[in-house]
Design a protein that fits this description.
By secondary structure, the chain is α/β, with parallel strands linked by helices. The chain has four domains: 99 residues, no CATH class; 40 residues, no CATH class; 140 residues; 119 residues, Rossmann fold. Helix content is 48%, strand content 6%. Helix 1 packs antiparallel against helix 5 and helix 12 packs across helix 22. The longest helix is centred in the middle third of the chain and has 20 residues. The radius of gyration is 22 Å and the shape is globular. The termini are far apart. 45% of the residues are buried.
């Protein structure tokens, strides 16, 4: 039996429709097997709190082994996993094709799905992962202003703590003038699309829940950058949530229903000659990896996967063909760039860093550590402090870089990093994270 593997990870399909997937004895048997392998390796201890939780349980047991851990505590490990996939994609030497076939994120997902099937989820978690109805409601004119004011009100935040939302957690700002409302469906339709590499030169933007309601300025910047480079744009305004929040909850049937709602919209755009990109790495990952692993025999899922791109992956493909303008009007200086986890595990390389470095005089410090935000993890009362601890190395790296700008492809990660910097970055204590697309638009001067 070989120790470890140097072969490329081969993530296997998720057998989530098999009744055994939800069988308690089968699940706990696999948890024990994998926990024992992880205990003997401990390579992932610095990634998140799942592994320290597991190793503390083992180290505090009578046997100093997994067999001494009470099975009732197994789910404590699961509760700390936010499915970043870094352990599988960047650390684990036992992922398939290794014969031990360890896929820790998929096992955690199975456990979350089991918990959801057993109705072992909180009202709060079901609510805050229902992004479509919640975000649509909060973004209504008048309500968004009240919600933003409440987010800054100490008394109301204390009340929110009773509901499980930490009073110090940075919350997103909501906009009534959403991306869907401020732009027409087609932008730059007069531009002539030029295909190259795997790209058609026409982009349909999956604006996402977060991009629509919380960061419409990033979508403004994305559209401007694409149009500046001769790329016509279509906004997919009727698309629903990608399903990542429900995936993290273990509600796999809801993930399926969201997929079924979005596929016709995406397929229509593909048939019209468009490629698809999205501003949030997690949403890209859902269609490039998570859904293909959940539905490995679905030809439509495979077709969408082939047409889905990270924004800077797309721009770098175009750059290699000489189809991206490098007429930048100003430099960005020193940039501290956080590489989002759900972008790292797409295995596309540091395309954002590579593009930023095309800007003359720009020096990029790439930070490959988890920001700690991870979906809803950083806003929950019970995990906020842990999220800030996970974010600390990233915050320290930003401070050490002394950058002119900092940011992440994940706006949520950027916001938590900025939150950690408050009062700690002497030269600019009020600094805000800036999305790399916004940096590029600024450098273009458009």
């Amino acid at each position: 039996m070989k120790e470890g593997s140097l072969e490329a990870p081969d993530r296997q399909p998720l057998d989530w429709k098999n009744p055994e997937f939800y069988d308690r004895d089968s699940l706990y048997g696999e948890l024990e097997r994998v926990y024992d392998i992880c205990h003997g390796c401990r390579r992932c201890v610095s990634l998140c709190d799942s592994f320290p939780t597991l190793f503390d349980l083992v180290d505090e047991s009578d046997t100093f082994e997994v067999d001494g851990v009470d099975k009732a505590d197994y789910m404590k490990v699961v509760d700390q996993c936010y499915l970043c996939d870094l352990c599988a994609e960047t650390k684990c030497p036992y992922l398939p094709p290794h014969e031990w076939a360890v896929d820790f994120p998929h096992l955690m997902l199975r456990a979350k799905a089991y918990k959801f099937a057993q109705k072992d989820t909180t009202w709060r978690d079901r609510l805050i992962t229902s992004t479509d109805p919640i975000f649509d409601t909060i973004s209504l004119p008048g309500i968004s202003a009240l919600a933003n004011a409440a987010a800054g009100n100490g008394a109301l935040r204390s009340l929110g703590d009773r509901l499980g939302i930490h009073p110090e957690a940075p919350l997103p700002e909501f906009h009534s003038n959403t991306t869907s409302r401020r732009h027409p469906d087609e932008i730059g339709a007069s531009l002539t699309a030029t295909p190259c590499q795997r790209t058609t030169g026409k982009v349909a933007i999956y604006i996402t829940c977060y991009g629509d309601h919380n960061e419409p300025e990033v979508l403004d910047d994305m559209i401007a950058v694409l149009n500046h480079n001769g790329i016509p744009v279509r906004l997919l305004k009727d698309a629903r949530c990608c399903g990542m929040p429900k995936l993290e909850l273990g509600d796999l049937k809801k993930v399926e229903s969201l997929k079924d709602a979005n596929l016709p919209i995406f397929l229509e755009a593909i048939e019209d000659g468009y490629d698809i990109i999205a501003p949030i790495p997690s949403c890209v990952l859902m269609y490039k990896q998570e859904l293909p692993l959940m539905f490995p025999e679905d030809a439509d899922v495979a077709k969408v996967r082939a047409a889905f791109f990270d924004p800077f992956e797309y721009l770098m493909l175009r750059h290699k063909a000489g189809l991206v303008k490098t007429d930048f009007k100003s430099t960005l200086g020193k940039v501290a760039y956080h590489v989002a986890c759900h972008q790292r595990v797409q295995n596309i390389g540091m395309k954002t860093r590579d593009f930023l470095q095309l800007i003359e005089g720009t020096e990029v410090t790439a930070i490959e550590r988890c920001s700690g935000h991870d979906g809803t993890y950083a806003v929950k009362s019970e995990t906020y402090e842990k999220a800030m601890k996970i974010a600390r190395p990233v915050v320290n790296r930003v401070k050490q870089a002394e950058p002119d700008s900092f940011g992440s492809d994940c706006p949520m990660a950027g916001r938590l990093i900025a939150h950690g910097l408050e009062g700690g970055w002497e030269d600019n204590p009020d600094a805000r994270s800036e999305h790399p697309l916004s940096m590029v638009r600024r450098a273009y001067g458009i």
